[in-house]
Amino acid sequence: MSVRGPVLILVGPPGSGKSTVGRLVAERLGVPFRDFDADLQREQGMETGELVVQLGRERFQEVERETLVRVLPEHTGVLALGGGTPTAPGVPELLEPFHVVFLDVELEHLLRREGLVPLHPWLLPNPRAHLRKLLAERRPVYTAVADAVVPTSGRAPEEVAEDVLATLTTSNEHQAG
Asked: What is the mean pLDDT of residues 45-62?
């Protein structure tokens, strides 16, 4: 019995390329792409960064989980989760039935991404320290929920998308065998 939901879920820190790669993969598969942060923003009426400040981390994570419970069964394409979504209590269990790929990125590559800090103001005043801590805390969670890990540092989105697509083929072969 297969569970209804996304054919692929992408996880990783902010700036790892989840949205860019997710759109490419969805296009190649001929399925819709969905950005989970955009769902939260649409439902809650404010940016996710503002939501965390308004609601506090704990309540924000509850809202993430509640929203994910609704989104998973209705979306059958590629889903890019927010950077912190997999760390919310109960979320790893929700992801278990799905094919999850962790887009892994090195700290130095993240720091070179233009627009990352203005987009995520909580990284200030010291983006390097915040990102290092964030990666150290979240990498084990990303790895635990993922069926595959694809490195993204210094690689073209098309190249990363090819590797992500290859994980789907490998996964299907294991399920068939």
From this structure: 87
Rounded Cα distance, 41 and 100, in Å: 23
Tokens 């983006």 belong to residue: 127
Report CA 8 to chain centroid distance, whole Å. 10
Which SS3 state, helix, strand or coil, does residue 135 take?
helix
What's the Cα-to-Cα distance from 143 to each of 44, 85, 87, 108, 138, rounded to whole Å? Answer: 29, 14, 11, 20, 9
The predicted model gives 72-85 an average pLDDT of: 94
Residues 6+ apart with CB under 8 A from 49: 119, 120, 121, 122
**What's the distance, Cα to Cα, between the start and end of the chain in Å?**
15
Residue pLDDT, tens place only, 156-175: 999 999 999 999 976 554 44
80 close to 18: Cβ distance less than 8 angstroms: yes
By DSSP bridging, strand 100-104 and strand 148-151 are parallel
Q: Which two tokens stand for residue 75?
A: 């979306």
pLDDT for 99 equals 97
Q: What angle do CA 135, 23, 73 make, to 5 degrees?
A: 85
